[in-house]
Amino acid sequence: MGIVDEKLGIREKIKISAFSINVKNNLDKILLEYGDSIFGPSNIIELLGCSRNSATSYIRKMIELDIVDSVIGLGKSKYRFK
């Protein structure tokens, strides 16, 4: 499976989740912006213009969907899409 196929699988997990349409749209924005990059709460704050609590909530939702992995060795709260 290629990177494009894997990202489509992640988008499908977001699409079929029970989250609100607004949350799904924001998770999709995060995926499109940081799909191949390492990101953290500060990146989400910058992208969405949201609070730190909201950014952390989005990360928890992505962990719940099992679409991100924690990145070790680059500081606290760094993630990468699977």
What would you note in describing this structure?
- This protein is mainly α and 82 residues long.
- It is 60% helix and 10% strand.
- The protein is globular, with a radius of gyration of 12 Å.
Per the CATH scheme, the topology name is Arc Repressor Mutant, subunit A
Name the shape in a single word.
Answer: globular
Task: Give a count of the beta strands, DSSP E runs of length 2 or more.
Answer: 3
- Arithmetic mean of pLDDT: 91
Strand content: 5-15%
In the CATH classification, which architecture applies? Orthogonal Bundle
Gyration radius from CA atoms, angstroms: 12 Å
The structural class is mainly alpha
Low-confidence spans: pLDDT under 50, at least 5 residues? Answer: none
For the sheet with most strands, the description reads: 3 strands, antiparallel
Q: How much helix is in the residues?
A: 55-70%
Helix-strand sequence? HHEHHEE
CATH H-level superfamily = Winged helix-like DNA-binding domain superfamily/Winged helix DNA-binding domain
Question: How many H/I helical runs?
Answer: 4
List keywords for this structure.
single chain, 82 residues, Arc Repressor Mutant, subunit A, three-stranded antiparallel β-sheet, 3 strands
Brief synopsis:
Helices cover 60% and strands 10% of the residues. The chain contains 4 helices and 3 strands; from the N terminus they run H-H-E-H-H-E-E.
Summarize the SSE layout with pairings.
Blueprint: H1 3-16, H2 21-34, E1 38-39, H3 41-48, H4 52-64, E2 68-70, E3 79-81
Antiparallel strand pairs: 1-3, 2-3
Helix pairs in contact: 1-2, 3-4
